[in-house]
Design goal:
The chain is an all-alpha fold. It has one domain. It is globular and about 50 Å long.
């Protein structure tokens, strides 16, 4: 692999910066992004945004009652991501195996988050 040119690096940076816009998330949940972006950003970029929110909730007693509903909402969001993964088109010739693996993985994430929700607030 060769080093990317300055123009290619600028395009990569623009694509990645787009991931922090509402338009990207709307497009992602509609399944219009590539399979890789839909899977990785939908599951893990969102998780990196969700985790600090939950940590703040753990340290502010006023929010204790919202922790379990937050986990349920995140699980429902992951179900929407699973739908988007199903609709997303893989780039290149990665085939259906990768798509099915990504779908099953996302569904397992959603199920595990919602299964933990009753116990997340120490109840």
């Amino acid at each position: 692999m060769t080093n990317p040119t300055d123009q290619e690096l600028a395009q990569i940076n623009a694509d990645r910066a787009r991931m922090f816009t509402w338009a990207f998330w709307k497009s992602l949940l509609q399944g219009r992004e590539g399979l890789g972006d839909t899977f990785w950003a939908g599951n893990y970029l969102a998780g990196l945004l969700f985790l600090p929110i939950v940590i703040v909730m753990l340290f502010v007693p006023f929010f204790y009652g919202l922790i379990a509903p937050a986990f349920v909402m995140f699980g429902l969001y992951l179900l929407a991501v699973a739908r988007a993964v199903w609709l997303a088109k893989p780039k290149g010739d990665s085939g259906k195996g990768i798509k099915i693996t990504a779908l099953v993985w996302t569904l397992l994430n959603a199920i595990s988050v919602m299964a933990v929700s009753p116990y997340s607030a120490g109840q």
